Amino acid sequence: MRTVFPIEMEAELMQEFFASTACGFFVEVGANEPRNLSQTWQLEQRGWTGVLIEPQPELADALRRERSAKVFAVACSSRRNAGTQMTLHLAGSHSSFDAKLNLAGVKPNGCIDVPARTLDDVLTEADAPSIDFVSIDVEGHELDVIDGFELARWQPRLILIEDLLLRTRLHRELVRRGYRWLRRTGINNWYVPRSAMPKLGIDGRWQFFRKLYLGTPSRRLRMTWRRFVTVPQPWVRQQEMARD
To answer: How far, in Å, CA of 61 to CA of 55, rounded?
Structure first.
């Protein structure tokens, strides 16, 4: 069973995964633009409902105009950060709470303070039902989002989470919470509940082990090196990270 795929196959695999779900519920943390690179736009067109979370005010306004899902103009973070104002360093889709950003060669063009809440708090206010799909794309803030997300309570069927795989902490935390790695598309990892995890087979397990464990040290070394040399444009670097 193959477990590592190029990003170009993600939409097809998503459609296959949710083929039998006519009217599901999605949550997109770090929704960014209403349609471009959206993980949930096509699901909404199929009749799904959900929650979109985007801390940048202009993008949140665009989401409200063009999407039917509930929009929250906040940042999802840890329980410790909930209720505070956090500084978001602006760099388009690479905006991050880390001033160094996630990608070498990309520099912020300003910063804003945004309110922080836990994902649990947002979902409670939205009166969310059982969750079919959660997308988390927060440029290095993933562990903080997971800290404020009670997986045992919401039990999403699929978590799609961006992970440059520079370390294994995020993976280990999701496993500790009862989720298992299913596949990787580009720089996104797929996690499903332990009870729904299919048998991967030897080849699938090897692909997982090679990607997550064998590749991580060299991936971190290359990322460090790229911060000191001239590097390609961001989309090229993302493709390189996906292949590593």
So the answer is: 10
Q: E-strand spans in 11-54?
A: 25-29, 49-53
126 vs 51: CA distance, rounded Å: 8
pLDDT computed for residue 224 by the predictor: 66
pLDDT over threshold 60, residue 103: yes
User: What is the structure's pLDDT at 220?
Assistant: 72
DSSP 91: B
Kindly list the structural domains of the chain, giving each domain's residue range(s) and its CATH number in brackets, ordered by start.
Answer: 4-243 (3.40.50)
Contact 160, 146 (CB under 8 A): no
Which residues have CB under 8 Å from 173's CB, separation 6+? 143, 146
CA distance linking residue 184 with residue 68, whole number of Å: 29
Q: Are 131 and 152 in contact (CB under 8 A)?
A: no
Indicate the Cα dihedral angle 68, 158, 79, 41, nearest 10°: -20
DSSP string for residues in 105-171: T-----EEEEEEE-HHHHHHHTT--S-SEEEE--TT-HHHHHHT--HHHH--SEEEEE---S-SHHH
Confidence category of residue 130, pLDDT binned at 50, 70, 90:
very high
Q: What is the pLDDT of residues 160-203, one digit of tens each?
A: 999 988 889 999 999 999 999 999 999 999 999 999 999 999 99
